[in-house]
Structure formats: structure tokens, C-alpha cells
Amino acid sequence: MKAELGRRKRRSMNEINVVPYIDVMLVLLIIFMVTAPMVTPSVIDLPSMSKANTPKEMRPIEVVVRQVGSLQIKDMKTGKSQDSTVDQLADKVKELQGAETERPVVISAEKSIQYQAVVDAMDALQSAGVAKVGLLVKPKSAK
Question: Is residue 95's pLDDT more than 80?
Fold first, then answer.
């Protein structure tokens, strides 16, 4: 009888302590808030070439290939940029060229971008009749 009185029934605890999870999430939030301004998404790592010609007379229209289907068009004359898709690319470039149909268009993309995305952009421009289409590269540094 005495043995039964000294024994307590154990209950299972059905609550989750979420305080440690909230602490971890707040620390992660602070880390992301501090590092986000340091990230520069507009820098492009261009492929290099031993001898690169740069268009000097006319400021070209630059088409930046971000990923398949996502493009950005930069007008080097005015400094304005706009987002575009491959389907809208030719119309927007023709609009920026206006009366200057010989104004060059250069395509730039990072090394890691799929080759097909660059080819799609070039094909859309050439099929629309854009006269001067080239690829933008950075010159190799002399060793």
C-alpha cells in the first residue's frame, strides 16, 4: 500500500517550446538584414577575349541576359533601363533605335548563363532586322 502512495503517474508533455526557434529566426533575420545591402546584383561577370573592339562613335543599346526569358535593356545614350522578355525584345530595341537604325546593339551575359538564353536574344534581334548585333566581352588582362 505504501508503495502505491509514493508513486506518481507521469504525464506526457504535449507542448512544444518555441522560444529557441524564435531566437534562431531573429538571429537569421538580423544576419540577412545586415548582409543584404552588401550584395550588388547589377555586377555582371563577363567572359573575356584577347582582343575586343569597343564601339566608340555611337553609344550602343545593351541587352543584359539574366536568365532564360528574363532580359534587361539599357540605353547607353540616356542611361535608362527597362525589363523585357524575349518576345518583347525586338520591339523595344527598335523603339530605342528610332531613326538611328545603324545604332549597335550588344548582348551581355554572365559566364554562368545558359548559352541558349543568349542565342534566343540574338535570334530575336536578327529576325527583327536589327543591323548590328554583337556580344559584349571584357578584354583579357595582360600577363
Answer: yes
**Could you tell me the three cell numbers for 2?**
505504501
**Domain residue limits at 9:** 2-37
Show Cβ contacts of residue 40 under 8 Å, excluding neighbours closer than 6 positions: none
Alpha-carbon distance of 98 to 50, in angstroms, equals: 33
Tell me the C-alpha distance between 125 and 61, whole Å.
Answer: 12
Exposure class string for 14-25: b at 16+ Cβ within 10 A, else e: eeeeeeeeeeee
Q: Which of 105, 101, 62, 70 is nearest to 88 (CA)?
A: 70
pLDDT band of residue 45 (cuts 50, 70, 90) is low
User: 42 lies in a domain?
Assistant: no
User: pLDDT over 90 for what percent of the chain?
Assistant: 10
- pLDDT greater than 50 at residue 143: no
Instruction: Report the chain's terminal Cα–Cα distance, integer Å.
Output: 93
